[in-house]
Specification:
The structure is a single chain. With 400 residues, the chain is mostly beta strands. 14% of the residues lie in helices and 37% in strands. It has six helices and 31 strands. β22 and β23 form a beta hairpin.
Length: 400
C-alpha cells in the first residue's frame, strides 16, 4: 500500500469511528425564568419564546400557524393526552385537546399538534450545547386564551403531572432523570432558572455551590381536586414558632396543599385564612398599620419595619410538613411592597369554596430552590436563598 492510500485509509477509519461514537448523554436541560412585574407571574423561555410557567398545567399550548400538523386520534400521542381532555373532530381523524388558561380558568378547543422545541443542555454550571427536541406533543389555542397572561407570554408551559406535560416528554425523549427544579426570581433584573433532569444545580456568588445540597424534603401527594397539581401534606402552620389554631383537619380537606405558579400569591381557604391572619396580626401588634390594599387585608407602615438579610423583620411563618421539616417563610416572601410606605401580608383570602386549603403561590416561592423529584415522589425545598447570600438570579447562562 502506497503512502497516499495508507493516509486515506487512516482518514476513513477516523471518520467511521466518529460516526459510530454515540452522542454524549444529556444530563439536563436548562431554561431562564423571567418575572413579569405587572402580573407577578413568571415565564419560561424555550425556543426563543416565553411561556407562562404553569406548575399545574397539563401540556404545552400556544396559538398555531394555519399550516400546523395535526395528530391522528388513532396515534399513541393522542392516547397519551387523555389527561388533556382529548376529543375528535374532522370526521374523527384529528385529535383535539382542551387547553386551559390557569389564571382565568377559561378553556378552549384546539388541535393536538407536534412541535420541535429548542433548549440548552447544561452540566449544572453553564450551557454546554443547544438541543432540539423533536415531536413534542402540544396543543393549539386561540389567541384569546392568552388573556390575563403576561404580555410577553406566547402560551402556557404545563409542567404538571401527566402524560404530555413538558417535563414528562423531556424525560422520555432525552432519557433524563425524572426530576425538575425551578428557582423563581423576585425581580425582572436577572432571570431565574429551571432545570429538567439531574444535578448538580449550581448557583453563584459568592462561591459556586450545588443548590440541591441545601434541600429539605417532604413527600409529594395527589390532590383529589386537581390530579395534575403537585401537592404536599402539612401537619400545621406556626407563627413565631407558635402553632396557628386551625379547625381540625382543615389542611387536609378538599385539595389539601398545592403549589401553583399561576397564583401570584398564596391563597388560603377562609377557615385557614382567618386564624392565620389573626395570628400574624397578633405577632406584629406593635407595628403601625396602613389601610388595606387589594387583594391584601393586613398592611403595615414599612418605614416602621426593621430590615434583615431575609427581608422585613416580621414573624417567620413555618409550614410544618408531614416529614417534620419546616418550610420557613421570612419577610422577603411574606410581605409585599405595594407603595413606598406600605407593605402588606402577601396572602389572599380564597373564600369558603377555594379549591385547596392552601395554594402556595409564586411570591412565596421566589428565591427558593424547589426540586420536584418525580422518581422518588418528593419535593425538595431550600427556604430562602438569601441566608446563603445568593438568589435565583445567579445561574451562569454563559456558554461553556
Amino acid at each position: 500500500m502506497n503512502s497516499q492510500a495508507f493516509f486515506l485509509a487512516i482518514i476513513f477509519f477516523i471518520l467511521v469511528q466518529l460516526q459510530a461514537s454515540p452522542s454524549p448523554a444529556i444530563q439536563a436541560l436548562v431554561a431562564p425564568i423571567t418575572k413579569d412585574t405587572k402580573t407577578g407571574l413568571h415565564t419560561l423561555s424555550i425556543s426563543n419564546k416565553n411561556y407562562l410557567l404553569d406548575l399545574s398545567g397539563q401540556l404545552l399550548w400556544s396559538p398555531c400557524s394555519p399550516s400546523h400538523p395535526t395528530v391522528p386520534c388513532s396515534s399513541g400521542e393522542c392516547a397519551a393526552a387523555s389527561g388533556a381532555h382529548k376529543s375528535s373532530n374532522n370526521g374523527g381523524r384529528a385529535c383535539t385537546a382542551r387547553p386551559t388558561n390557569p389564571v382565568t380558568g377559561e378553556r378552549a378547543v384546539g388541535d393536538l399538534t407536534l412541535a420541535d422545541i429548542v433548549a440548552n443542555a447544561t452540566d449544572g454550571k453553564t450551557l454546554t450545547s443547544e438541543v432540539t427536541v423533536r415531536g413534542v406533543v402540544s396543543s393549539c389555542a386561540p389567541g384569546s386564551l392568552l388573556r390575563s397572561l403576561p404580555a410577553m407570554a406566547a402560551g402556557d408551559a404545563g409542567l404538571g403531572r401527566g402524560g404530555v406535560s413538558l417535563p414528562t416528554q423531556l424525560y422520555s425523549k432525552l432519557s433524563l432523570k425524572r426530576q425538575f427544579a425551578v428557582c423563581l426570581p423576585s425581580t425582572a433584573a436577572a432571570p431565574g432558572v429551571a432545570f429538567f433532569g439531574g444535578g448538580p444545580y449550581n448557583l453563584m456568588p459568592p462561591t459556586l455551590f450545588d443548590a440541591s445540597a441545601v434541600l429539605s424534603y417532604t413527600d409529594l401527594a395527589r390532590s383529589p381536586t386537581n390530579p395534575s397539581a403537585y401537592s404536599i401534606k402539612l401537619r400545621g402552620i406556626a407563627m413565631n414558632q407558635e402553632a396557628v389554631h386551625l379547625p381540625p383537619g382543615a389542611l387536609s380537606r378538599g385539595g389539601g396543599v398545592t403549589l401553583d405558579t399561576a397564583a401570584p400569591y398564596t391563597v388560603l381557604r377562609r377557615d385557614v385564612y382567618r386564624p392565620f391572619v389573626a395570628a400574624f396580626a397578633k405577632a406584629t401588634a406593635r407595628i403601625p398599620r396602613m389601610p388595606s390594599v387589594a387583594p391584601f387585608e393586613l398592611c403595615f407602615n414599612s418605614s416602621a419595619l426593621g430590615f434583615t438579610r431575609v427581608g422585613y423583620a416580621v414573624a417567620p411563618i413555618d409550614l410544618v410538613t408531614s416529614g417534620g421539616r419546616n418550610w420557613t417563610v421570612f419577610g422577603s416572601n411574606s410581605l409585599a411592597q405595594v407603595a413606598s410606605d406600605t407593605a402588606c401580608l402577601a396572602f389572599v383570602d380564597g373564600g369558603r369554596a377555594a379549591r385547596s386549603a392552601v395554594t402556595v403561590g409564586a411570591f412565596q416561592m421566589e428565591n427558593n430552590f424547589l426540586l420536584f423529584d418525580e422518581a422518588a415522589s418528593r419535593l425538595g425545598f431550600s427556604g430562602t436563598l438569601f441566608f446563603i447570600r445568593t438568589t435565583c438570579g445567579n445561574f451562569n447562562f454563559a456558554r461553556n
